[in-house]
Each structure stands twice: as C-alpha cells, then as structure tokens.
C-alpha cells in the first residue's frame, strides 16, 4: 500500500489528523490495535476548549456538537464552607464546552471509520530517518501488510510503539501519589457548572456529560481497587467532600467506574526524521486542568498546517518548526495541570493544606489570579505558524 501519511492510533488525535488532512486532499492510512467498539465506547475527558470546538466545527463536525454540547462560562472552586465561581466569560471572553471525548471519537469515526484498520497486531515503523518511511502490521484477518508513506505520525498514546522507535532523547516524568476514582451516573447533574472541591479527605469533582448523566471523581490512593468502592461508599464520600450548606447531591445508578493514575510526562524529541508524535504518545498531563484532549488537538492543528504546506508546496520549514511550536504549548499546559493538581489534592501534609487554602482564597478573590486560571482553562489560542 502507498499513502502520504501513515498514522498509528485511532484515538481523537489520529482520527482528527486523518480527517483534517483529507480536507486538504492529503491521503492517510490509520491503524489501531483495538476494536472499533472499544475505541467508540471508552470514557475519557469531557471538556473542550473554545479553539478545539472551533476547529471541529470548521472541519464539518459541528452537528452533534452543537446539538448536545453544553457551553460552560465558568467553574466553581470550593473548600469546606465556601463555593466560588470563576467567571471565564467575564474574565477572558471565552468559554469551554462539555462534550465527551467519546462523542468526538464517534463523530470522527463517522467520517473516517471506514478507512481505519482496526484490531491490527505487530505494528512496527521502519526507516523513519529516511524519506521513505514504512509502517508494517498484521491486519485483523492475519494478513501481513506494509504501508509505504512520506510521513509517519505516532498518535498511539503513552503505551504505543511510536515513541520507543525514536532514539532515546529526554523525558520528564512525575507520578503523583494519588489517583482518581471516576464514575458515570444516571442522574441529572446537581450543578450548572463543574465543581472542583478541595477537602481534607481529598479532592472531589462534579462534572457531567448531559442533562441526564453526571460524571464525578474522588481522589483515592494510587493502588486503590474499584471493587473496594461500593456505590453507597462512593456516594457517601462524594456527599461529604462536595457538601455545602443549602446544596445537596443527587444520586443515581452508577453505570461506569474506574481508577485513573495521575502523571505528568513530557518526552522529547517529538520528531525523528519523518516520524512525528502527537498527543499522549509524547506527553501526559494529570486530568485536573482538563487539558489532555485539547493538547492533543493543538498538536494536530500545528502538524496539519505543517503537513499541508509540505504536500502542497514542498515547504519543510513548518515541519521543522513543529516540535518547538508544539512544546511551547505542552509545557504551558503541563505547568497549568500540575498547578491545578497541586492546589486541589491533599497529601496529609498540614503546611501544604494551609498553603493550598491560601492559594484557593487568593484565586477566588484576586481578579488577576482568577484571570490566570481562566485563560489557561479556556485555552490559549492555537499557534499553528500559519501566515497566509
Ligand atoms: C470530565 O468531565 O471527565 C472532566 C472534567 C474536568 C476535568 C477532568 C475531567 O478537569
């Protein structure tokens, strides 16, 4: 097989890249080791930055997003006895949208799904330091395949095969001493906007997916087993940590439960010859800043522009600038996600607790501090290097 861009991974980053390239007349092949049903069902992030939404809408994927997405103009920050709103719209003129990653992937599969090779095995990249890189894999029927491409893109996540193909560069990593227990529940959200709650027993968050589906999280120990958390125990703990006089938490059937580890990770280089990494293949942020998906989309936006210039005009300057441009945003988001995580999760250290409460009070009382949180949360503008 021959294609212009061979893409490893059919998550939101790989699918979006394939879609945006197709709009520019650049053809691609996408391979994915999971099944279509698995990719379509996995529950992940839920907050889209304005620029992410604008990009999806401009690329023709706005129909379901406009119908089901919920615009949020702020979030609530809380600690015992206090709940404060950070007004994104007033502070930055921008908003975020609640629309599950699961839904974004469904929309993308609607346009690209038939061109994805699902359930492949033995995926390997070859000759990526030449101008004739290749991708080999065994398809779902057991037939070995080789794709000859001009460029290969690794969109295969933290555990994928693409990053290890790049000769060792530098990586920065932190595993946080806590995890999130996340649930999806069939109950209308008890809040209009997301609640991020600091509590001496640990962080809790109230998010949502639709007017009938709530998504909630509890800080737990990293090795925590889901089986140890009965539905009653989860609702009780959420009730305590999110509790506020005059407010009550609605409960309902829990339809999904899972524990997510929390990690910060940045790996460089993001490019080796004709191989480019996007999204979680190159960097992971803890979920507290709602940045992971948006950062992957930003990588894809920058790379699409660079590949567009390469295939249309033979220009290599934007490809050469991809890594620096992407990394500037990666480090900004890595800092913001670390900062939100550090402000809201408890470790048992009593000095830390007082510092966190002082920081929360400052963010909720100083317009300058609130604006800093808001502009990072809604997302700094994409810098794709596009000049035309
Ligand atoms: C979610 O709805 O899953 C969600 C929202 C905000 C976050 C993380 C996750 O910071």
From TrEMBL:
The keyword NAD belongs to this UniProt entry's keyword annotation: yes
State the InterPro entries in the record.
FAD-bd, FAD/NAD-bd_sf, PheA/TfdB_FAD_monoxygenase
Keywords (alphabetical) are: NAD, Oxidoreductase
Show where the FAD-binding domain sits.
2-337
For this protein, what is the EC number?
A: 1.14.13.2
Domain of life the protein comes from: Bacteria
Q: Which GO terms describe its molecular function?
A: 4-hydroxybenzoate 3-monooxygenase activity; FAD binding
List the Pfam families hit by this protein, alphabetically: FAD_binding_3 (PF01494)
Q: Supply the name of the protein.
A: p-hydroxybenzoate hydroxylase
